[in-house]
């Protein structure tokens, strides 16, 4: 154990955040899956044990990835990006359907399903970090600098949007922020935002006109968010949001206490999309505020890694992956407290899951790999300075 701990490198605060979120996940999943376990005729601790196995595997993935020199991901990024394109196309037409959208691929033999959008998110940020680092000298030029980083974003977001619009929009927003950090001209970023908005509108109109895709689902969710469906035959269409509000209101300042949720018996998917509402009910506003602070702490430490890294690729890699993870967490929380319409985004490292946790673990491992390299480089510089003084 002592030797294993000595091999753990990188930012210790980020490691602490991972452990803290994993512990909270076990408590929240155990509480939120009580009704699910009863319906599926499982023991009360079945899903907690399953989640424990997933989290242990995730921490193992972080450890393995953070031991890899992050510069190797630069060579791997192009191949991964090219592989993701046919995978997204296959998912769009032949993937496992969920709520009228094809988001999942089931691997044969092992019967493991995963969202190709999770893999594509990793691929696009690795590829963008590579492109931004290479194009820094001409990044202000539209043809030579901006187009080579714009086209990959449009391709990935365009393939994700028909089945998973919320993920595509979140990905596009994070890419815009990464472009701003990477010194892309602001007018070019505004152009990307305009093209993205036009694309969403066109996708919606085509979906509604032809009666295919998820246009009707998006329209219904917006109407539910605006409260327009509460007086007609779809009176229970706001059921998820209503139950989440009840859970939040009953939590108060300090909450009911661990394992004492009532809403878990009524709220759909309390262990995934709406786990934050369960956390507020059991741990109150204080617990929710601490959880938000933990995610923001992770983002702050990643920004420090970005500022300390002397090489553009590692800096862009760390900040891009951290932004998308934290933004997903904040978006999930916003859905739970009814600030935005319902989406299918989970709470990273907390919601019950498998492949999604493992893909997030790869992202965190890459960030820690960059941190490890920066720490080793600074340690070498200090040693040289001491030798010179001696």
Automatic annotation (TrEMBL):
GO cellular component terms listed in the entry, alphabetical order: cell division site; plasma membrane
Segments crossing the lipid bilayer: 12-33, 45-66, 78-98, 167-184, 191-210, 274-299, 311-335, 355-374
Localization in the cell: Membrane
InterPro entries (alphabetical): FtsW/RodA
Domain of life: Bacteria
GO-annotated biological processes: cell division; peptidoglycan biosynthetic process; regulation of cell shape
Catalyzed reactions per annotation: [GlcNAc-(1->4)-Mur2Ac(oyl-L-Ala-gamma-D-Glu-L-Lys-D-Ala-D-Ala)](n)-di-trans,octa-cis-undecaprenyl diphosphate + beta-D-GlcNAc-(1->4)-Mur2Ac(oyl-L-Ala-gamma-D-Glu-L-Lys-D-Ala-D-Ala)-di-trans,octa-cis-undecaprenyl diphosphate = [GlcNAc-(1->4)-Mur2Ac(oyl-L-Ala-gamma-D-Glu-L-Lys-D-Ala-D-Ala)](n+1)-di-trans,octa-cis-undecaprenyl diphosphate + di-trans,octa-cis-undecaprenyl diphosphate + H(+)
Membrane topology: Multi-pass membrane protein
Signal peptide boundaries: none
KW Transmembrane (keyword) present: yes
Keywords: Cell cycle, Cell division, Cell shape, Glycosyltransferase, Membrane, Peptidoglycan synthesis, Transferase, Transmembrane, Transmembrane helix
A GO term for molecular function: peptidoglycan glycosyltransferase activity
UniProt-listed Enzyme Commission number(s): 2.4.99.28
Main location: membrane
Family label: Belongs to the SEDS family. FtsW subfamily.
Protein name: Probable peptidoglycan glycosyltransferase FtsW
Organism the protein comes from: Taibaiella chishuiensis
């Amino acid at each position: 154990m002592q030797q294993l701990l000595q091999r753990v490198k990188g930012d210790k605060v980020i490691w602490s955040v991972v452990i803290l979120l994993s512990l909270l996940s076990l408590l929240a999943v155990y509480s939120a899956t009580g009704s699910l376990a009863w319906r599926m005729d499982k023991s009360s601790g079945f899903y907690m044990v399953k989640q424990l196995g997933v989290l242990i595997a995730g921490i193992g993935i972080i450890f393995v990835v953070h031991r890899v020199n992050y510069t190797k991901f630069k060579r791997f990024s192009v191949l991964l990006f090219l592989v993701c394109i046919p995978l997204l196309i296959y998912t769009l037409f032949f993937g496992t359907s969920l709520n009228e959208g094809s988001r999942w691929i089931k691997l044969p033999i092992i019967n493991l399903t995963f969202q190709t959008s999770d893999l594509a998110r990793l691929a696009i940020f690795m590829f963008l970090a590579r492109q931004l680092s290479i194009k820094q000298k001409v990044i202000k030029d539209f043809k030579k600098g901006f187009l080579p980083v714009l086209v990959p974003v449009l391709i990935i977001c365009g393939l994700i949007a028909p089945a998973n619009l919320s993920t595509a929009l979140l990905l596009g927003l994070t890419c815009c922020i990464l472009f701003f950090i990477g010194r892309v001209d602001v007018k070019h970023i505004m152009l990307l935002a305009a093209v993205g908005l036009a694309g969403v509108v066109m996708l919606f109109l085509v979906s509604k006109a032809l009666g295919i895709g998820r246009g009707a689902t998006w329209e219904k969710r917006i109407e539910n968010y605006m409260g327009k469906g509460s007086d007609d035959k779809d009176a229970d269409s706001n059921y998820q949001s209503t139950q989440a509000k009840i859970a939040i209101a009953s939590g108060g300042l300090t909450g009911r206490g661990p394992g004492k949720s009532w809403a878990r018996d009524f709220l759909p998917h309390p262990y995934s999309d709406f786990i934050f509402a369960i956390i507020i009910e059991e741990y109150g506003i204080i617990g929710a505020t601490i959880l938000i602070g933990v995610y923001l702490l992770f983002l702050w430490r990643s920004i420090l890694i970005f500022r300390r890294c002397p090489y553009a690729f590692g800096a862009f890699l760390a900040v891009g992956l951290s932004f998308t993870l934290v933004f997903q967490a904040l978006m999930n929380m916003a859905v739970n407290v009814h600030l935005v319409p319902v989406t299918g985004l989970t709470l990273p490292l907390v919601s019950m899951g498998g492949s999604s946790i493992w893909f997030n673990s790869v992202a965190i491992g890459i960030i820690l790999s960059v941190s490890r390299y920066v720490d080793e480089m600074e340690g070498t510089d200090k040693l040289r300075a001491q030798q010179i003084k001696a």
